[in-house]
Amino acid sequence: MHFLTLKDFDKGFLEETIDSAIALKKDYSEYSSAMKNKTLAMIFMKTSTRTRTSFEAGMTKLGGHAIYLDCRTTNFTLGSLQDEAKCVSRYSDIIMARVFGHEQVEEIAKASSVPVINGLSDSYHPCQALADLLTIKEKKDQLAGLKLAYVGDGNNVCNSLVLGCSKLGMEVAVAVPKGYEPMEKEGAAITHSPAEAVKDADVVYTDTWVSMGQEEEKQKRMKIFPPFQVNKELMAKAKQDALFMHCLPAHRGLEVSNEVIDSKQSIVFDQAENRMHAQNALMLKLLEVG
């Protein structure tokens, strides 16, 4: 079983994984050897801080081993993607791939004889959404009935949040400039007004305006997106106890102001930590360990 997009998983799977992650975070003692003699191969086509560190540290906490494969310094740049992936799957028990086009992680999964996890593609970021849902449940003690407002670019993170939140009974409002709507819309209220989206929200979420691979669009986007900055004035339209979330890295002064990301409402570093716990629970589930 591969984990490429939240589309492929039902409410039960997501709830079980989130609850397992919460339990793991509280006490790893029973799972410190769960991945003994198991290897995670990590294929990176894009740069990374949180994805690499959280998977590698997570595998260590579970007693396993992780191998970092930078595509620029391996024969992934020379050979067939499927051939290279097929070889890597012969050496490992599970693979995580951080790619550009979503078709690349699909191709890796097709060739692999072991489970493949999408560590990010241009279309989806399911591990991030899983960690985000874990973080919200941790802070609010529930998911169903809450409202999440996403403000900014309808990117891979937005697509995965729409899928995950709607499956778990959350209301999702997405505010994007015209022409930058998410690919996944079912279950979400799409608007071009940040104020409308954020009204009465329990969670306000944003991400970079320029994702990796979109650098040539930067000048154009810098003219379009400023009205979609999450600042103190916008946060005031959400519920008084609303949380602020960002998957990081944040571009301070652009998609979010310093006063918001550094405020008591901000839980961005809890999100970052929870990548590891959510992914550990996911790997245990995919490998049917524990």
Give your account of this protein's structure.
With 290 residues, this protein is an alpha/beta fold. The chain folds into two domains: 6-125 and 275-286, Rossmann fold (3-Layer(aba) Sandwich), CATH 3.40.50.1370; 127-272, Aspartate/ornithine carbamoyltransferase (Rossmann fold, 3-Layer(aba) Sandwich), CATH 3.40.50. Helices cover 40% and strands 15% of the residues. The protein has eleven helices and nine strands. The chain has helices at residues 11-26, 50-61, 81-91, 102-111, 126-140, 156-167, 194-198, 218-224, 232-235, 258-261, 268-286; strands at residues 39-44, 65-70, 94-98, 116-120, 147-151, 171-175, 188-191, 203-206, 243-246. A five-stranded parallel β-sheet has the order 7-6-5-8-9. Strand 3 (94-98), helix 4 (102-111) and strand 4 form a beta-alpha-beta unit. Helix 1 packs across helix 11 (268-286), helix 3 (81-91) packs across helix 4 and helix 5 (126-140) packs across helix 11 (268-286). The radius of gyration is 19 Å and the shape is globular. The model has no long low-confidence stretch (mean pLDDT 96).
Can you lay out the helices and strands and say which pair or pack?
Blueprint: H1 11-26, E1 39-44, H2 50-61, E2 65-70, H3 81-91, E3 94-98, H4 102-111, E4 116-120, H5 126-140, E5 147-151, H6 156-167, E6 171-175, E7 188-191, H7 194-198, E8 203-206, H8 218-224, H9 232-235, E9 243-246, H10 258-261, H11 268-286
Parallel strand pairs: 1-2, 1-3, 3-4, 5-6, 5-8, 6-7, 8-9
